[in-house]
Design goal:
Blueprint lengths: L7 H17 L3 H20 L5 H8 L18 H11 L5 H13 L2 H8 L1 H18 L8 H14 L9 E3 L5 E3 L8 H6 L1 H7 L21 H32 L12 H10 L5 H8 L3 H14 L4
Antiparallel strand pairs: 1-2
Helix pairs in contact: 1-11, 2-4, 2-5, 2-11, 2-12, 4-6, 6-7, 7-8, 8-11, 12-14, 13-14
Organism: Sphingobium indicum (strain DSM 16413 / CCM 7287 / MTCC 6362 / UT26 / NBRC 101211 / UT26S)
Protein name: HTH DNA binding domain-containing protein
């Protein structure tokens, strides 16, 4: 079953609608925060360490350690490292995008988490991540999906896949041999920078973090890859418009007349709850710079104002 037309014109039309809506939407910051998690979840599947958006939310809100931190001992990389690379790729000069990234890092500093849980992955994949960014976000002579597809294919050939040392195995009778070294797939590194490539080519106004869906194995033909990218953009941008409609409707249902003081942080917490559902009291205290006792009272106040929803 095909999700959307693979026509580049159709894909860019839907992308333009989403970009235009985000320029004036009261829910743009909430949408960007949620789409960052969606994009990171998509990249995790691409990288072979699949985690859900809910698992990422639980980690960000302080309810759990990084997903797969114990059961994923044979994973090609840590989720903490992948999340850091994904968020760093979404860093933008756009003030709304930068503000939402700062809020996310107030909740959970991905840089510190990656340094704590996966320092070796930062060393292993960091150079390739930076090289991919430089190659894919360099100026484009023409803003076309075909041009981006060709750049992706060229960049793939320029990246050196990290290789781990082969394990030395010793049998009971003393014989030894070394298992072939493990090579890592680099497709997810390229996918990280696809939103930046679309921005650099002038096809989008900002980095849209859920536009990271590339084929598991990149074709050698730029035309085939451009069609796959067009289908992905049409699908993700269409879903993005639906999600934006949903968030704007939720915002419209929030109480308009709040019997709170001008300095109250209740309206801000209502918005944060839409971006990060299930915020704990400690996370609220850290985000808003208040005491744990103050956060407890504020959460209870917001629950009364919104009827517990």
């Amino acid at each position: 079953m095909h999700d959307f037309s693979a026509s580049p014109d159709h894909a860019l039309l839907v992308l333009g609608r989403l970009d235009g809506r985000l320029c004036n939407s009261p829910a743009a910051d909430i949408w960007l925060a949620r789409e960052r998690l969606k994009g990171a979840s998509m990249l995790s599947g691409f990288a072979g360490v699949p985690v859900s958006v809910t698992e990422l939310q639980n980690w960000i809100c302080g309810r759990t350690p990084p997903p797969r931190h114990s059961e994923g001992l044979n994973d090609p990389l840590s989720v903490a490292a992948l999340f850091h690379f994904a968020l760093s790729a979404s860093d933008d000069r756009d003030p709304i995008a930068r503000a939402t990234l700062n809020i996310s890092r107030t909740l959970l500093d991905d840089r510190k988490e990656a340094g704590l849980w996966a320092p070796e992955d930062l060393v292993r994949f960091g150079p390739s991540w930076r090289m991919a960014q430089m190659l894919l976000e360099a100026p484009y002579p023409a803003g076309t999906l075909l041009g981006i597809a060709q750049r992706l294919i060229d960049a793939r050939g320029s990246l050196d896949a990290p290789v781990t040392e082969g394990h030395l195995v010793t049998t009971a009778d003393g014989r030894q041999w070394r298992i072939d070294p493990r090579r890592f797939d680099m497709g997810w590194v390229l996918a990280c920078h696809l939103p930046g490539a679309l921005l650099a080519a002038g096809l989008s106004l900002r980095r849209l973090p859920s536009l990271v869906g590339l084929p598991r194995f990149l074709p050698d033909d730029a035309g085939s890859l451009a069609k796959a990218i067009a289908a992905m953009i049409a699908r993700q941008a269409g879903q993005g418009l639906i999600e934006l409609d949903r968030l704007e409707a939720k915002l419209a249902r929030l109480p308009k007349e709040l019997r709170v003081t001008r300095r109250s942080k209740a309206p801000l917490l209502m918005r944060l709850e839409l971006a990060y559902p299930g915020l704990g009291k400690m996370a609220v205290a850290r985000l808003l710079g208040i005491s744990h006792q103050g956060a407890t009272k504020l959460v209870a106040q917001v629950e009364r104002l919104t009827g517990g929803h």
